[in-house]
Amino acid sequence: MGNPVSRASLGIDYKLLRRIPYLILLVKYGINDKDYVVINLTRLANDIGTTPQNVFKIINRLAEEGLIIKSTVSGQLAIKFTQRASEALQFVIDTIRHYLDERLVIRLVGHVVSGLGEGGFYMSLDGYVKQFVEKLGFKPYPGTLNIKLKPEYVKYRLYLDALPGIYIEGFSNGVRTYGGVKCFRATIQGLPGAVLLIERTHHGPDIVELISPYKLRDKLGLRDGDEIEVLVTL
């Protein structure tokens, strides 16, 4: 097994660990650190085995401890994670990773679909390319490969929203502002690459955009409709 994980090396307050089960449950409902998500107190209460009133108290406690931020969307209670919550979840991932002495992997499976043709433009922008090289260790082919996930894999894609990932900062070229991108290293049918979670996108959670040093369609001989497997490393 790997070396023990120290508090200092991961910089986490161990008092937060008692809140991890609640955070993991919220991840199940799509809560993340980017967007406010409406929550159903009754459904949460059924999962925990308590009352909606107690769930409301738990939500307030998590907010008081700086783990979530509350808001309203269309008159309904909505929440999102704070950076502190994301760091706590990452701590759990790192701890398990050290214990198992291996990287954790999320498997995504879907079918190749055509995108809007914008990937080549965005992947050629210096503001993005320099950060990809620095943070991912490769210069991406100027284009993205889009896959539409099978329904049973969408929930795993949503888990990624709540995890820190590798953040590519947004930037401005003086004429236009470009949004940030969160990404995760991945292997795509055995080839190196990354999954992109783009802040400004028209796609739903069932669409995943991939980058790689290679032109994936040519390298893997892919056409629209072909099934593809992506292994995301955390």
TrEMBL record:
Question: Its catalytic activity?
Answer: riboflavin + CTP = CDP + FMN + H(+)
Give the matching Pfam families: CTP-dep_RFKase (PF01982)
Q: Does the keyword Oxidoreductase apply?
A: no
InterPro entries the UniProt entry points to? RibK_CTP-dep, Riboflavin_kinase_archaeal, Riboflavin_kinase_CTP-dep, Riboflavin_kinase_dom_sf, WH-like_DNA-bd_sf, WH_DNA-bd_sf
GO BP annotations, alphabetical order: FMN biosynthetic process; riboflavin biosynthetic process
What enzyme class is recorded for this protein?
A: transferase
This protein's superkingdom? Archaea
Q: Annotated pathway, please? A: Cofactor biosynthesis; FMN biosynthesis; FMN from riboflavin (CTP route): step 1/1
Its EC number is 2.7.1.161
Which residues of the sequence carry a binding annotation for CDP? G115, L116, G117, E118, G119, G120, Y214, K215, L216, R217
- Known cofactor(s): Mg(2+)
Q: Name one GO molecular function term.
A: riboflavin kinase activity
Going by the UniProt record, its keywords in alphabetical order are: Flavoprotein, FMN, Kinase, Magnesium, Metal-binding, Nucleotide-binding, Transferase
The free-text function statement in the UniProt record for this protein reads:
Catalyzes the CTP-dependent phosphorylation of riboflavin (vitamin B2) to form flavin mononucleotide (FMN).
Q: Which PANTHER family match?
A: RIBOFLAVIN KINASE
Protein family membership = Belongs to the archaeal riboflavin kinase family.
UniProt-recorded name of the protein: Riboflavin kinase
Q: Which organism is it from?
A: Vulcanisaeta distributa (strain DSM 14429 / JCM 11212 / NBRC 100878 / IC-017)
**What lineage does the source organism belong to?**
Archaea, Thermoproteota, Thermoprotei, Thermoproteales, Thermoproteaceae
Annotated gene: ribK
